[in-house]
Amino acid sequence: MGNFTHTQERILKSAENIAPWVQMLREDFHRHPELRFEEHRTSEICALELEKMGISVQRGVGQTGVVGTLECVGGDGPVLAFRAEMDALAIQDLCGTSYQSKNNGVAHLCGHDGHVATLLGAAKILGEIQKTLTGTIKFIFEPSEEAVPPDEICGAEAMISDGALENPDVDAIFGAHFYPDWKAGTVALKPGTVFSGNDVVRLTVHGQESHAAVPHRGVDAIYVASQIVTATQGLAAHLDINEAVSVHWTTINGGRLHNLIASEVVLEGSFRFSNESLRESMPTKIDQLVRGICDAFGATYDLDFNVRPMPAVISSPKEVRTMRQALIDGLGEDAVIDMKQPRLAADTMFHWLHRTNGVFYMVGTSDSNPATQYPSHHQKFDISPDTYSTAVAAIALTADRFMNRMESM
Ligand SMILES: [Zn+2]
Question: pLDDT (tens digit, 9 = 90+) per residue, 376-393?
């Protein structure tokens, strides 16, 4: 090998060697997916594997969450955390492989099975090279990341309130998300907003019911809601084209009989903005728009912008720079992709990155096999076996760069 340090060389070799074990773990998790806060089997496997590696384990952090702590021999360097989500989706798996989900109606279609397996692989390597590192590494296995109902706490919040970022305090946290948009063997990252987040908005338009034969006695809530739907798109059309934006009313329900003018329409929306100040200005803008239209037609409304706030996931520039260089040095220029735009997706990683620095990065998972090209959440979603060595190496190379005794920050 070329200009690698001894540790980098060791990491790359170990990542290659460990990839089949990581793949086996991922397929096992895929076969046995578990829904939010029911990740008992998954979290117990994580805890047992960490213990086998000599890493100290706390179970039940944030209900089913697990934290492994590796205090490296070299003393008082930085405290890094690496996070993987454990939960699956309530969707039927149709991947048609030998490792298809045995749990009817539940499936790992977002790659979380791979995130968990990869983090265990990296933990094993980092445990083996800990003498070359200074500081502490926390391995965070997070429950309940997916589609948490508005009235329920998510796994990241539960773990943080149970002290996952404390004792010792974490200096920087790193989280990966698998994506078929990039080829297996690559890692994509950017400073600033990585995921737009997603605000779930609920609007009720109150009109006045009347018989359709006497429309002057009613206020047609369906008509008013339709104006609001159309006008919302007009608002989106006037935003800066450099921003990634998705503004959509996604459910609409109202009316009770074919010959009655509807008295009430309930809409739900999914509003996503790459820019946090734009996002913060939206409740006022939407409220003005809804009020104007309702006033014009004599309707009233209730608008709830905070049904489930999911702010943007924002990577800190300094940590991105350091990690990016570590990946280029270890994996080569071609393996490291600079993301041009944020994705219009949401992830509870924002909870961690609101409290400490860190990086949310993407790991490519597709190859020439069409089975690896389905988008996340597709019922046939699958992952290229070429994903794992790169995904594992990305974590270990990053830890090495931040914590190496010879070349630490
Ligand atoms: Zn996910």
Answer: 999 999 999 999 999 999
